[in-house]
Specification:
With about 375 residues, the chain is of the alpha/beta class. It has 13 helices and 12 strands. Strand 3, helix 4 and strand 4 form a beta-alpha-beta unit.
């Protein structure tokens, strides 16, 4: 089975696995305990925070450890909304955000906040001018992802951040960086980002840990109560093994980013050329998108049906975000781009990893052709 779902989860580095095992065996003490074993565990967290801060070119005190990017996104959005509601109760996001951002905003909307959802263009790109036009005096936060998790569009964060701050310097800018980190350059200062979410398990780190960058001076309302952990922002005993292992993956994400990009871009471009040659397919990804994501549709065929056929042929693919892939309705992202129901219901996402080769892509191309022919026969479209 060839695995083409690296945007959903990645196999951890061997060093990450060994680190987690070692920490679980040797440093199992509670970091909040006063004894030496607890102090050693706390020291490991401090070192991990320093590593992650260095990777993002920020201060260690600006790094918060969470259970994952879903929690990081929830804390960034709801924490800012609750903390700064005296400034206003208006937030801005886009129609193509990950469910952890989109649904956090919907929940706030249901509880009295006003949310502006900015629509993308037909390629999934967000117009910075449209974001800026929505910013008001009472806009507390704007949240825009770096790379779309479904179709791979890279958003113009530099211009978005600049325009937000030019309209209202007090409006916070949150970036969901899950699909961009380790593949594209991250420039928090240049983006004028106040908050930034990161998921180690998307970059060959472990599950169970996440990061949230919080610019110095920004305050968030805690969503969890029960302790003073993580400067009082996240109650609960820290997951030391996952935190330490995550710091390794975060460091390696910076060190190997350019190599990763150079390796995957030719594979992605080859697949795009192939997809263009198959009349049955509609390509939903931009040519200048992220190097690891290609999304296309087989109109008239449910994406889930096509994905199952590909799995029978030895190819593990997805239809959209893993957090939404089991939903039966058409893709919210594709519908917001103006795609019709048949395209929005027939999507397939291919996401590359650093283990893929030209031979793997060739095998995938053969499987795609075989799947199309088999499904046409099943539909009675071929004699």
């Amino acid at each position: 089975m060839l695995y083409w779902d690296y945007a959903a989860a990645t196999p951890p580095y061997e060093d990450v696995v060994k680190t987690m095992e070692q920490i679980m065996k040797l440093h199992y003490a509670n970091p909040s305990s006063l004894h030496r074993a607890g102090s050693e565990a706390a020291k490991l967290i401090r070192r991990s925070r320093e590593v992650c801060a260095a990777a993002l070119s920020v201060q260690p005190k600006e790094i918060l450890f969470t259970s994952g990017a879903t929690e990081s996104n929830n804390l960034a959005i709801k924490g800012a909304a609750l903390q700064y509601q005296s400034r206003g109760r208006h937030l801005i996001t886009t129609e193509i955000e990950h469910p952890s951002v989109y649904e956090s905003c919907l929940q706030l909307q249901q509880n009295g906040w006003e949310i502006t959802f900015v629509a993308p263009d037909s390629t999934g790109m967000i117009d910075p001018e449209r974001v800026a036009a929505a910013v008001r005096r009472d806009t507390v936060l704007v949240s825009v992802m770096h790379v779309n998790n479904e179709i791979g569009t890279v958003q113009p964060l530099m211009e978005i951040g600049r325009l937000i701050k030019s309209v209202n310097p007090r409006t916070l800018f949150h970036v969901d960086g899950v699909q961009g980190y380790g593949k594209l350059a991250v420039d928090l200062k240049g983006w004028k980002a106040d908050l930034y979410s990161l998921s180690p398990h998307k970059i060959r780190g472990p599950r169970g840990a996440g990061l949230l960058y919080i610019k110095e001076g920004i305050q968030l309302f805690p969503l969890l109560s029960g302790g003073s952990h993580e400067e009082g922002l996240r109650a609960g005993t820290e997951n030391v093994p996952a935190i330490v292992a995550s710091s390794k993956a975060v460091r390696m994400g910076v060190e190997q980013r350019e190599t990763f990009y150079a390796r995957l871009l030719p594979l992605r471009d080859r697949l795009l050329r192939f997809l263009h040659s198959v009349p049955e397919f509609v390509i939903n990804s931009r040519e200048d998108g992220a190097p690891h994501i290609v999304h296309f549709s087989y109109p008239g065929m449910k994406g889930e049906v096509f994905a199952r056929k590909l799995e029978e042929l030895g190819m593990a693919v997805s239809t959209r975000s893993a957090c939404s892939s089991r939903l039966a309705e058409p893709s919210r992202v594709l519908l917001s781009m103006g795609k019709d129901i048949s395209v929005a219901s027939g999507g397939i996402r291919i996401s590359f990893g650093d283990s893929h080769t030209e031979d793997d892509v060739a095998a995938l191309e053969n499987a795609l052709i075989t799947a199309v022919r088999a499904l046409k026969i099943a539909e009675g479209g071929m004699k």
